Amino acid sequence: MKTRSVLAVTATALLLSACGQDAQEAVQTTEAAKNFRKDLQAKLIKAKPGDVIELPEGTYSIDRSLSLNVDGVTIRGAGMDKTILSFKGQVAGAEGLLVNASDFVVEDLAIEDTKGDALKVNQGENIVIRRVRVEWTNGPDNANGAYGLYPVQTENTLIEDSVAIGASDAGIYVGQSRNVIVRNNRAEYNVAGIEIENTIGADVYGNVATNNTGGVLVFNMPYLKQPGHTTRIYENQIFANNYENFGTPGTAVAAVPAGSGVLINSNDNV
Predict the structure, then answer these.
(1) Which of 43, 112, 159, 230 is least enclosed by beta carbons within 10 angstroms?
(2) Mean pLDDT of 222-247
(3) Which residues, 6+ apart, have CB-to-CB distance to 106 below 8 Å?
(4) What is the pLDDT of residues 37-47, one digit of tens each?
């Protein structure tokens, strides 16, 4: 009996020690995540033209939006399935990463589970989005962010070799822009896979759009300063876009019927 009591006490002590170690590691992990976000945002704020911000392999929890307002910066991860910025616990901000800058490159990373849009680039020139994955990992849901890759009012924009999954509006969206190339991407389980809206001079080729509500959409929306025209859509794989529409009622994309491969609305020279 005495031996058993000693063993029981020893086992309990080891268990408590292990639990304490787990709790300590959890605190350290949370603290490391906070430090990573603060460090990354500090680098984005202090960046100078020509800087390359390298993000190492790993999954990093980020609880609020990141922003960049400096021209000529590159953000580079270790791969779209290796460097993962997870916003699942996001408590502040409308986007994952908001960029108001020109000569911007982002590549080789993933942005997951943002509260709003995943990557928004606003009013910039010479934008490159390459090998970036944006995804809502819970699958298609109206509560997901509206846009995955979202350059708007840009000029000379390239989106290539990227992946967009689960957006409640458009996985890859280009709006009110000029001179755009969208190539060799995959858009899946979005309401709209790829959407070109009020944009002049867009080439959309080499992409795979499948399992969306609509595969590729070319729109002109009213009351915007720039009407779009001249879009070329070729050499894409657009198939099985039959997913039920989970867009927000009242929005334009909510009217897209499931089963739409290519939908063109009020846009010339397509």
Answers:
(1) 230
(2) 97
(3) 74, 75, 76, 97, 99, 119, 128, 129, 130, 132
(4) 899 999 999 99
Alpha-carbon distances, residue 221 vs 169, 174, 214 (angstroms): 15, 13, 17
Of 205, 155, 162, which Cα lies nearest the Cα of 180? 155
The neighbour count for residue 229, using CB atoms within 10 Å, is: 16
Distance CA 223, CA 153 (A): 15
DSSP annotation of 268: B
CA–CA gap between residue 231 and residue 261 (Å, rounded): 16
pLDDT over 80 (residue 34): no
Angstrom distance (rounded) from CA 34 to CA 32: 5
Percent above pLDDT 90 for the chain: 86
* Residues contacting 164, CB < 8 A, separation 6+: 118, 133, 134, 135, 148, 149, 171, 172, 185, 186, 187, 188, 190, 193
**Secondary structure (DSSP) of 117-137:** EEEEEES-EEEEEEEEEEE-T
**pTM for the structure as a whole:** 0.88
Q: In a 10 Å sphere around its CB, with 0-12 CB exposed, 13-18 middle and 19+ buried, how is residue 10 labelled?
A: exposed
Q: What is the DSSP letter of 17?
A: H
- pLDDT greater than 60 at residue 14: no
Place of tokens 């991407």: 185
**Which residues on adjacent β-strands are paired with residue 183?**
160, 205
